[in-house]
Design brief:
By secondary structure, this protein is an alpha+beta fold. The protein is built from three helices and seven strands, in the order αβαββββββα. It is 28% helix and 32% strand. A hairpin with an 8-residue loop joins strand 5 and strand 6 (109-115). The protein has a seven-stranded antiparallel sheet with strand order 4-3-2-1-7-6-5.
Length: 152
């Protein structure tokens, strides 16, 4: 993420931060399972092709979020659909209420984010490209406590 986008995100985050709170890491993550998105995309593509007589197609992708880890909380921001930069602020969670499962590493670094009081975990993955985004994602992961993954 470029310095301009990071500065814009910090400006958007300023009202959500407490006096003396310091930002540590700004990262981007994709929400949800790629396998699930591709399954939904396949069904949507078939429906679109049938309804349009084969003249149209559809594209879907995982939703992107920007995450700001401060010394006190984890803040979530939309990714702007047109520019790809940070959009509006969604919510913040105290760091003491957040934990992640041990990340699985491969092409994508994937983990589940557990928030105290939520019934379901949020599946997140860090983009592999560009490498600077992957580095920031790994730095964010390193700053969060771990929780045991639920056995299915």
């Amino acid at each position: 993420m470029g310095a301009r986008r990071e500065r814009r995100l910090l400006e958007t985050a300023a009202p959500m931060m407490q006096p003396g709170e310091t930002p540590e890491v700004v990262a981007m993550a994709k929400v949800g399972s790629l396998r699930k998105v591709l399954g939904e995309h396949f069904a949507l593509s078939i429906a679109t092709a049938v309804l349009s007589g084969g003249t149209m197609f559809s594209l879907t992708s995982q939703r992107e979020l920007y995450l700001l880890l401060t010394d006190r909380q984890l803040l979530f921001f939309e990714a702007d659909a047109y520019t790809g930069g940070p959009g509006k602020a969604l919510f913040g969670v105290p760091r003491t209420h957040v934990a992640i499962t041990e990340p699985t590493r491969g092409f994508l670094v994937k983990f589940e984010l557990h928030i105290h009081g939520w019934d379901q975990a949020m599946t997140l993955s860090m983009p592999p490209i560009p490498p600077s985004l992957r580095k920031k994602g790994l730095k964010l992961i390193a700053g969060l406590p771990r929780v045991q993954a639920a056995v299915a």
